[in-house]
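Researcher: Please generate the 3D structure of the following complex. Treat every line as part of one assembly.
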Amino acid sequence: MLDSILRILALTRKELLSVLKDPRTRMSLLVPPLMQALIFGYAATYDLNHVPYAVLDQDRSAASHQLLAGLDGSGIFERIADLHRVGDLATYIDDRRALLVVQIEPDFERHLLSGTSADMQVIADGRNSNTAGTAMGYVNSIVEQFNTDWRSTHGLAAAPLGIISRAWYNPNLETRWNMIPGLIGTLTLIQTMMLAAMSVAREREQGTFDQLLVTPFRPYEIMAGKALPAMAVGTIQATGVLLVAQLWFRIPFAGSYLTLYVGLMLFLLAAIGIGLLVSSVAATMQQALLYSMLFIIPFSLLSGMTTPLRNMPPAVQYFTAINPLRYAIDITRRVYLEGASLYLLRSDLWPLALIAALTLAAAAWMFSHRMQ
Amino acid sequence: MTVETLVDTNSWPAKLRRVRALVRKETYQVLRDPSSIAMGVVLPLILILLFGYGLSLDVKNVPLAVVIDESSDEAIELLASLQLSRYFQPQITRSMVLAQQLLLEQKVDGIVRIPSDFVRQLNAGHADLQLIVEGGDANRARIIQGYVQGAVGAWSARRAAQGQSAEITPVILQTRMWFNEANESAYFLVPGLIVLVMTLIGALLTAMVMAREWERGTLEALLVTPVRSDEILIGKTLPYFLLGMIGLAVCVLAAKFLFHVPLRGSLLVLLGASMLYMLVALGIGLLISSWVKNQLVASQLTMLATFMPAFMLSGFMFDLRSMPAAVRLITYVLPARYYVALLQSVFLAGNVWSVIVPNTLVLAAMAILLAISSRAVMRKRLN
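Model: Done. Output below.
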């Protein structure tokens, strides 16, 4: 038993040395996750803070000015042009200068003062319909505010029904709060899985795998020796991203670190298990890389980070059942934002444990099978 | 074949013959290695199918817990208008505690609570409805809030029409979404996916292939032959360029016939822009591989320098205008940004020359710059 542990540690040390001896590789393992966490932390948000818009105000009245002042004063909308002809409207949208064009018709104020409804038209550039929808939602709340003000200043009855809305865990509905905890898993997945996938393939391509075979190492020892360094790298990367989220973006951490790290360890084991399985199948490094890409890319896109899992058709949802990142993102988000306990996260933890157990066992079997 | 053409290695026919030989050798290599075929044909197909069906930001059939503290005709009517909306699947829940438990377990996405003095308040002129959404997915939460607002608005309008309230909405907002009237997220996600697929084939595959040649020293072996460095470049990249074009064809066909994304611009513009982008992606792959000369590092760097930015920083998912200035500056260096703008316009808006011309020019400039620098790097490394 002790011998076995010593052998695993020796192999781990050798593996870490071979990965870390090259300064470029060392840099490529530490710098990119931190840089990406910083850059993507700013980039990955569905919130808009700069919406260029153009106005075609055909009424030019006090009421229309009041309504537009609501837009201009929001700090989000920037008026880039006052249009005079309906014909200009299309060009501003077409060449992407404006995300929205607001049109107010000539008798806007007259309608309002006479006690009937007046229309305001908004045209949005739907080339990214999610952005356009968000911007229209902002316009809608500004119009709601205008309506409330108008009713109270002009002696109209208040709207019969209001909605008092609250959002749990994320009161201001900032998408950044949602994205950055998701990055902890996403940014570590790529490199840990690749490291694992390359580990055996590299030895095989360089012919050193045969040398390993004549040593007293057992298959599971070789596997553990390959998995541990990747675990170490993954843990360090995840911790780095976690620190960026807390110290730089100042997103409050609601849960327990123990819960988070239990989840992350299982996630890393599952990802490495898949990587090692790929490694045991691949004949060359190139194949190992390509096959691991075939997993990494769907894993990172279909993880629920940018688009919700529930929107996926059942067939695709079945596929995501083998995606460790899917569970990791749910775990990191819920521990980070909601302070979820291990018990609440059980539906994420057991699939990860199962994936890890199955893939690691299969990889060990493949190693011993290929050895004979 | 005369003796002169063999000796005169600079003549065009000789150059062409050498390039052709290299291309043939490289093509055999691609065809014999199942993993490159997987990358060129199978990967685009899997990606476009999985993501085309899997990625969606449309919010439909939201499970919603409705808590009615005191039953009344008005409350039932309100529930009916939530049931009528195609966005919700409301389920009546007996108590608030139960509803909160459902929200905690993510069985529902939101809670609508109709308070006990709802009718009394309504008769007094104004009642409030409680809405609780789960903020974990803020984008979705905001859309749900908007839909509840819409359903309540429809209910108010119906009551006003029936003369039950004297309510007048001062300003009614009428919205239109150009290029995507039905608000289908596939319309902008599928063109974005084409960018990801082209990036992967172009940059990643080339980076790995070339890094392997450097690692094995097979490029140096080519030196003793009369082949020139620029001929090696052409010979190595042409098969992958063609592989990329096959990937493009797969993607465009899927976009059109599977996901019904309209192609409103011309196919020629789409093809031209894609060829330029493919050249740029190939150039990046070549540069990275001749810089690091190691398969693992080259592929990781390429993933980090091309795939992740094309996903996060290209305007494919997230609006570029809302990023801080420093991050926005980075996006200007990324070729994916220009290709995303081109594809979204060509697919959805048509041939908008004011978008096509500047973006194509930038891509062309990048392609030329990358071709020159990879030639220079290759020469330096080989000599």
